[in-house]
Design the sequence.
């Protein structure tokens, strides 16, 4: 079994699977169940300052379902914890004491005033937790109070609050980033400049999951009205991967420790983020869909895969994909692939044909041979777009590399490019 | 020595009976329908569509179910097959659409097209929707003889084109075998009449029940009084065993028995023997056997002269018989009957086999079964008598001859359904009626517009 222990921004964890700050980590009861199930760490549900009450509405989640698979994307309009601060702190301290080997990170969100941060930092230090995560991401409710995304979208604020925290505590500081920005590099760079020990990303994406056509109102609907919420789950994973990749491959932020979040549902998802450099991963929607037990498969799935690949520890493959993320202009224009149908597996649904015919390059012919349907790729017409492969419900299309004998040539070198640097 | 007949009604308790004759397949819930619809790949050039005799746009209607557009799904079905509701319940789908569903290959289980079809047509009926309107009325009058699937499908399409249709039906109720023949547990909740009402509700169709061609009506007269005639007569005759003693009261045609059962107001009043023999290997035989068993017969033995592969009944039907406790004896044919009116009968069967040339022959070995009731289901035949007494369409091989537009040898006379050659199925009858209506319409409106 591979060694799954890992570390992010100075916070150690027996495995890379944490629960993200959210309802699953809202109280002792849940967190203890999570640790029993095998989760390596938790980011406790975001704490706010004592005093102004946080009150949630009834009807809080919306979801996008695809086919029989429920919850492809989840949206919520919940706020930070609505439990008293001292209760949370007491429970955090107790759980950390009982589970010393697990990572206990406490998520915080208080108003943008240094005093408020100093006050809560002292209270949190007393729990002997392993670190804090600054919630600069919550896109609804709290942002209307000038917190969460309202801070996270302004790099100067991110840097300022991060610096306050680094100044007033010795606990490792992770800065949780909102994806609701045009470039993630601004806030990520600010977190680094402020001295943050790492970043957690992504928080939820601004969203409306659906409109109830009877009520003529967005869902979740609260007494006839709805508001935008935060989107998460498998649907957001591609955005999260992109943002992690941007941080990992840009000089200003490269090497910044990352705790990756966004649509992670299984070991494979987690491994992808680690391949982009993440030290730990965080999960919310997947456990809200299936419960804590999914970590069992995450652990042995990742471990078996690492064994098969010959990776002994997490750092052996951490970041390995980063060098392969490049700009489009560096891609090899001479690389050629064509679709290939494994006829023995083909069930003749005709989808590959109709999509290529209607929407791509008319590169799959439809014939009847003695009454039997036959779909075949016309190699000369195929541009290697992959559409048919993705559409085929029986997974019987692969893309075959064409050996055209041509050398690497990117767009900047391509004679077809008017700005090409290649010699004519 | 003959025993008295043990035949009685009410062998089961009313509750058990109601259950036995309730829905064979319970309808899908919305969630089940959605899940099943999600299994459909939405094939291009879909094999299922091609295998449907009425060419229902199966991927099109299933996708509509998956998007929550069940009424649109229902309309898509009825556009091609106005009896989509009955077909969903009785089509031998394992030999039609579901047999060729591409999900048989990877998943080893077809999309349950028929159940989805039922879900969609039920939704349309429940919504009380009338999807069809009639085009402007023409001055054409058309006579349809027989209110079975063929006749009604034809009448509906013609009425939509704006023609005025009169349907002459010998029986007191319309629906043909939907009403009088199909197994009761496939057609519960009066679906046959609900469907007939729906078809007639489009307007422009006058239904004249109790009027038979051949009695006071002649084909000559109809051809004279109407612009065109459609014959959807079904099969009016049944094959006989050709054995002495066949007329005793314990022996009955299966179709008559099923018809009585379908028409009974109370199944508790339908008498069934303690020991029942059914002779035949088609749907009718299976239906008679299963219904006899469900009515409470102790022993039901179905005897067929060939093997399971040659049975007209589908594998599903054969399994249904067996899971209902019907004993099927293959490779035996009846050779003698002993009994008289009021008594049980003893039937002697001779074992059969194929000779070197693949023909059936008796082996000489015999066995005897006693029965309180015997149902003959060895095939029905077209009865051409109603066509006689004037110009009659050509009949060959025992069925009315038609071309691909369903036109007979008489210019303005069309025919379809069981009375013409082809598969004797509800769905094929509907297709015939639909195709004939289109051809008649084209013919009648030629030169106009
Ligand atoms: C017991 C049984 C079970 C069956 N089960 C199935 C099944 O599960 N699935 C399936 O697909 N098919 C089944 N079939 C076959 C199916 O019922 C027929 O193929 C279908 O009904 C044929 O339709 P049709 O309109 O041609 O004839 P019919 O349904 O027979 O209708 C003919 C109509 O014409 C009327 N008629 C006849 N002569 C005259 C006349 N001279 N004047 C006026 N009216 C007249 C009749 O009264 C009848 O109403 C079954 C048949 C039987 C007998
Ligand atoms: C109901 C709900 C409440 C959440 N509350 C918080 C929160 O209090 N603090 C926070 O930083 N993130 C919060 N999140 C965001 C999650 O921590 C996480 O960043 C996001 O759900 C993406 O991960 P996922 O795709 O695994 O769900 C919440 C998410 C959900 C679904
Ligand atoms: S890869 Fe693209 S172009 Fe080639 S056959 Fe498939 S869909 Fe058509
Ligand atoms: S999509 Fe796949 S299964 Fe369907 S016809 Fe094409 S190759 Fe065959
Ligand atoms: S063959 Fe099966 S999967 Fe394909 S369209 Fe028909 S029902 Fe759907």
Sequence:
């Amino acid at each position: 079994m591979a060694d799954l222990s890992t570390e992010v921004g100075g916070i150690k964890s027996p495995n890379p699977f944490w629960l993200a700050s959210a309802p699953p980590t809202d109280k002792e009861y849940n967190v203890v169940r999570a640790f029993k199930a095998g989760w390596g760490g938790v980011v406790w549900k975001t704490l706010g300052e004592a005093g102004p009450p946080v009150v949630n509405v009834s009807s809080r989640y919306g979801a996008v379902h695809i086919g029989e698979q429920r919850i492809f994307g989840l949206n919520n309009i919940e706020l930070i914890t609505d439990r008293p601060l001292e209760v949370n702190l007491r429970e955090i301290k107790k759980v950390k004491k009982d589970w010393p080997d697990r990572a206990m990170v406490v998520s915080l969100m208080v108003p943008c005033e240094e005093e408020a941060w100093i006050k809560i930092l002292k209270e949190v230090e007393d729990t002997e937790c392993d670190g804090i995560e600054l919630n600069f991401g919550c896109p609804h409710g709290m942002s209307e109070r000038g917190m969460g995304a309202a801070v996270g979208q302004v790099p100067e604020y991110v840097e300022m609050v991060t610096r306050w925290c680094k100044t007033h505590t010795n606990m490792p500081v992770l800065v949780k980033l909102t994806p609701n920005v045009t470039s993630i590099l601004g806030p990520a760079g600010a977190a680094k400049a402020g001295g943050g020990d790492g970043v957690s990303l992504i928080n939820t994406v601004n969203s409306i999951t659906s409109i109830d056509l009877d009520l003529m109102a967005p869902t979740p609907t609260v007494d006839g009205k709805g508001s935008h919420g935060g989107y998460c789950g498998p649907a957001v994973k591609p955005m999260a991967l992109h943002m992690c990749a941007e941080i990992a491959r840009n000089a200003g932020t490269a090497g910044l420790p990352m705790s990756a979040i966004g649509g992670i549902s299984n070991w494979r998802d987690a491994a992808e983020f680690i391949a982009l450099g993440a030290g730990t991963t965080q999960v919310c929607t997947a456990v809200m869909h299936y419960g804590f037990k999914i970590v069992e498969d995450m652990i042995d799935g990742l471990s078996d895969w690492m064994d098969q690949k010959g990776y002994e520890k997490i750092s052996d493959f951490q970041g390995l994909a980063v060098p392969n993320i490049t700009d489009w202009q560096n891609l090899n224009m001479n690389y050629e692939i064509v679709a290939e149908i494994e006829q023995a597996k083909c069930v003749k649904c005709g989808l590959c044909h109709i999509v290529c015919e209607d929407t791509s390059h008319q590169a799959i012919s439809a014939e009847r041979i003695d009454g039997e349907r036959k779909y075949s790729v016309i190699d000369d017409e195929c541009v290697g777009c992959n559409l048919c492969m993705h559409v085929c419900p029986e997974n019987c299309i692969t893309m075959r590399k064409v050996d055209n004998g041509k050398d690497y040539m990117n767009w900047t070198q391509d004679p077809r490019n008017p700005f090409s640097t290649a010699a004519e | 020595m003959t025993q008295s007949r043990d035949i009685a009604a009410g062998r089961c308790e009313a509750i058990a009976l109601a259950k036995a004759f309730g829905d064979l397949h319970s309808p899908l819930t919305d969630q089940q329908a959605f899940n099943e619809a999600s299994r459909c790949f939405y094939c291009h050039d879909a094999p299922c569509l091609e295998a449907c005799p009425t060419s229902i746009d199966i991927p099109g209607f299933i996708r509509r179910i998956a998007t929550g557009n069940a009424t649109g799904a229902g309309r898509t079905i009825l556009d091609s097959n106005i009896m989509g509701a009955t077909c969903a319940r009785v089509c031998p789908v394992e030999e039609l659409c579901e047999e060729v569903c591409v999900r048989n290959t990877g998943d080893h289980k077809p999309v349950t097209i028929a159940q989805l079809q039922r879900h969609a047509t039920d939704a349309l009926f429940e919504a009380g929707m009338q999807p069809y309107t009639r085009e402007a009325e023409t001055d054409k009058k058309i006579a349809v003889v027989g209110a079975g699937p063929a006749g009604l499908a034809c009448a509906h399409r013609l009425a939509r084109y704006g023609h005025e249709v009169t349907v002459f039906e010998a029986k007191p109720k319309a629906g043909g075998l939907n009403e009088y023949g199909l197994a009761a547990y496939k057609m519960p909740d009066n679906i046959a009449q609900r469907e007939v009402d729906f078809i007639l509700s489009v307007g422009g169709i006058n239904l004249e029940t109790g009027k038979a061609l051949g009695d006071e009506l002649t084909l000559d007269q109809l051809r004279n009084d109407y612009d065109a005639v459609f014959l959807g007569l079904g099969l009016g005759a049944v094959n006989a065993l050709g054995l002495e003693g066949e007329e005793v009261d314990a022996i009955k045609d299966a179709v008559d028995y099923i018809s009585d059962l379908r028409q009974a107001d109370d199944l508790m009043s339908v008498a069934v023997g303690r020991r029942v023999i059914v002779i035949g290997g088609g749907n009718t035989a299976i239906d008679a056997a299963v219904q006899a068993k469900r009515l409470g017969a102790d022993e039901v033995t179905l005897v067929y002269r060939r093997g399971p592969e040659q049975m007209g009944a589908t594998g599903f039907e054969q399994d249904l018989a067996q899971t209902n406790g019907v004993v099927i004896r293959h490779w035996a044919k009846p050779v003698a009957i002993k009994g008289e009116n009021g008594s049980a009968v003893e039937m002697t069967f001779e074992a059969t086999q194929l000779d070197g040339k693949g023909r059936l022959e008796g082996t000489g070995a015999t066995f005897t079964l006693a029965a309180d009731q015997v149902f003959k289901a060895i095939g029905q035949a077209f009865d051409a008598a109603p066509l006689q007494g004037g110009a009659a369409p050509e009949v060959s091989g025992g069925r009315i001859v038609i071309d691909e537009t369903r036109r007979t040898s008489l210019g303005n006379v069309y025919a379809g359904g069981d009375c013409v050659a082809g598969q004797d199925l509800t769905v094929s009858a509907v297709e015939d009626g639909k195709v004939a209506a289109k051809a008649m319409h084209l013919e009648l409106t030629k030169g106009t517009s």
